[in-house]
Amino acid sequence: MLNSDIESAHRTIDKEINALRIMEKELNENLTKALDLMISTKGRIIVTGMGKSGHIAQKIAATLASTGTPAFFIHPAEASHGDLGMLTNDDVVLAISNSGETKELSDILVYCKRYGIPLISMTKNVDSSLGKAGNIILKLPDAPEACPLGLAPTSSTTATIVLGDILAVALMERKGFSRNNYKQRHPGGKLGAILQKVSDLMHKNDEIPLLDEHASLRQVIFTMSSKMLGCVGIVDQNGDLIGMITDGDLRRALVNSPDNNIFSKEASDIMTKNPKTISPDILVAEALNIMNTTGKGITQLFVLDGKKPIGIIHMHDCLRAGFTIEKKNDNSNSIHNKVA
To answer: Which residues neighbour 127 within 8 Å (Cβ) at sequence distance 6 or greater?
Structure first.
């Protein structure tokens, strides 16, 4: 059975790839026209479809909305019972039907014509009711379904979802949609956590342990203990970060001062000069990777704007956010995020 199952899988993959190849060859200027219309609309992209096309329409609407193009799904049957009121003259409707003859779409098509709402038709049949009603037609491939009966939507649904992705990706590229834009629309769950920046987690303002370069060792110990971040940043008279003292630096200074004159020293005498720093805009995963790969047991990094310290991030902050360090087989480490 194993071989026959693998052969079946190969046949399905081949047929669905073939459908995509046909669609690829048939792409034309209508794609650009549809994108021009979608990006210029003052309203939303209203995506609709029935049955399997409806399920895919929901996915397309969700993808558009999460990538910078306001969109939502309307069920054709619900549209006929009041949800047509959700449409405005500023919207664009994207209607999906492989055959183009889905009866439940008829009320939406009539409504678009009556009120001059632009309609993009996604169908394989340009001469269908949906094809003729559309201002722009995005043609789906006329290819055999992968289903052995040739009936269950398989190749056609794959092509539809890919065409929806083509629209979403092209709109992202046109708009210059960034990682930060994406994060703003995905604040929760794993995506939001992965895209967190150092500025989202860093300690700021009074939480930053900072002292003047002439501060006494007593001040260093007090500040390090009260801020509880295991270090103190040392700044010059201009407020620029010039050094850093960790609890390890303190211990080493005590061990190396047998004459007990340690408390006569200033912060600049025992600080590590030019410590490793980061900017507020890098990802938390990058910051954790810097701490993990520097090779000096760094567990905290000062965050600078130019030369001025504006924050500090500790390894524990990263771990609390769900990031983990896992050992690979080659003895190197990789950074992961376990937030669900």
So the answer is: 100
Q: pLDDT tens digits, residue range 285-294?
A: 888 888 877 7
DSSP 232-246: EEEE-TTS-EEEEEE
Same domain, 164 and 36: yes
- Asked if residue 88 has pLDDT above 80, the reply is yes
Backbone angles phi, psi at 313, to 5 degrees: -125, 135
Q: Which of 122, 147, 177 is the last residue of a domain?
A: 177
Same domain, 164 and 210: no
| Amino acid, single-letter form, for residue 88 | T
pLDDT tens for 194-247 read: 677 888 888 989 899 999 888 888 888 889 888 888 889 999 989 899 999 888
- Decide: residue 4, CB within 10 A, 0-12 exposed, 13-18 middle, 19+ buried: exposed
HSE of 321, CA atoms in CB hemisphere, 13 A: 30
pTM over 0.85: no
What's the domain count of the chain? Answer: 2
User: Cβ-count burial of 338 within 10 angstroms (0-12 exposed, 13-18 middle, 19+ buried)?
Assistant: exposed
Count Cβ atoms within 10 A of the Cβ of residue 61 and give its class: 0-12 exposed, 13-18 middle, 19 or more buried.
buried
Count of CB atoms within 10 A of residue 118's CB?
A: 20
The 10 Å CB-count burial string (b at 16+, else e) for 237-269 is eeeebbbbbbeebbeebeeeeeeeebeeebbbe
